[in-house]
Specification:
The protein has 85 residues and is of the alpha+beta class. The protein contains three helices and three strands.
């Protein structure tokens, strides 16, 4: 089975939700047998990505987790605001 690009998957799930889709940046790393994807969005968009009571973030995690289970992998997603200079 082909390896999924979780960075791309998470970015594509987030981009339709935000007002600054060009500023969505995702990175991934492996911690033991867990893949950690960090999603950075514009400061104004962080609330949109997290949603009320974390419901949007939970939905994004659920979709990505379902894809990871099919690949027999463990996935963790973290959301944060992109630092501006």
């Amino acid at each position: 089975m082909a390896e999924l690009n979780y960075e791309s998957l998470v970015a594509e799930l987030i981009k339709p939700l935000v007002t600054h889709p060009d500023e969505v940046v995702t990175t991934s790393s492996t911690d033991n047998d867990k893949i950690v994807v960090k999603a950075f969005v514009h400061t104004d968009d962080l609330g949109r990505v997290i949603g009320k009571k974390g419901r949007v973030a939970s939905a994004i995690r659920t979709i990505a987790h379902a894809a990871a289970i099919r690949q027999k992998q463990t996935l963790e997603i973290e959301f944060d605001a992109k630092e501006t200079k």
